[in-house]
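ok so I'm stuck.
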Amino acid sequence: MATSVDRRAITELGPWFHNLHLPGGLETCPEHWAGDFPRWKWLEFESRIPQDLTGWRALDVGCNAGFYSFELGRRGAAVLGIDIDRRYLAQARWAAERFGLPNVRFARRQVYDLDPAERFDLILFMGVFYHLRYPMLALDLLARLRPRLMVFQTLTQGPLEVCAQAADDCDFVTRDRLARPDWPHLAFVESTFCGDPTNWWVPNRAAVLGMLRAAGFHIIDHPGDETWLCTSAAAPSAGQDPATFDAARALARGLTAMENSR
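replied:
not stuck anymore, here's the structure
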């Protein structure tokens, strides 16, 4: 049964962005503006993930209060949820105790802190892309983790139509085609989007598909409006110089850590 201690903890740990359904019937954010979020988002793609994840290592990037981490943990995966927000991590760790999932752990890390030598069978990269100042670098890093499966979700804008895969080369004469609505574009957010200064980019669908391919991912399914399932290539995509990648990752780690410490 729900206790007054749990009710008080939910209030003290709030505000919440994930509406967790806790043992005993309590919910952490039952009046969420997006409905029962992120449960309805999970239902869009959960059937594409194996029901038995025993022996799988899973990574939840930008885990927030841990909803997806807990769902993967219930299926038997050893889960690492990472986030840079201390409040979200406090919520996640508290909820993990309520759910009794010792196979789910959380750490304060940014995506650029991930070690390319690590290996994860499953990666959730949801609601993170548009918050990143260096989005292509993050995708390159995730590809180096060689997941069997990655769930990618992002805010998007623009038309549903996309230009052909591996579109023909442009030159100075034909560059007008770069302005076509179906060409890959990232809308740059200089100030704020939805009042949030950590929103940097809003891609169109063509940009999502093109950037995933450029990082070395193979897109295998599109279970939701802004959600894609991918597998990774056996090696990083062509044209990625290891020394340049390492230098860019080190710079991104340092600059982002400074920004997050303010």
